[in-house]
Amino acid sequence: MSRLAWSRLDSAFERAVRDRRDDAARADMLMGAHLAGAAIEQSMLGAAHACANPLTARLGIVHGIAVGVMLPHVVRFNSANGENPYAALSDDPEWLARRLERLLEAGGLPRRLADCGVPQGMISDLAREAAQQWTVMFNPRLVGAAELSEVYATAFS
Q: 45-154 is classed in which CATH architecture?
């Protein structure tokens, strides 16, 4: 389901943003969102959502934006040990992370935590809270507060 969702969303997002009257792109976005939601029930999320939850709860950042900002950094972190948990989507996890950043840009969304007004001094507190989120248990690479601090730090640069 994740692969199907990604193929629909990746091919339609920029078209849907560029031309809101593109009904085919909007239909692909709708189906992609549905498939992604169904995939969540199977995979149970991971570190991107764990990191996003404190950003939403503490700073009021819209959850989808918080996930979007964190996702490329989590992709890089999860792949840094030579593993590629995203092989079904791309042979190159760095390409995937860059693609996610381009999609954020195409949507006019922030790409860095600083762009969201997150004070860098909050990293430790955010990481501790993120490490307590239930979604972190399903991340493909084990994470705790120290690892999540690294992920948050990369989201500032």
A: Up-down Bundle (1.20)
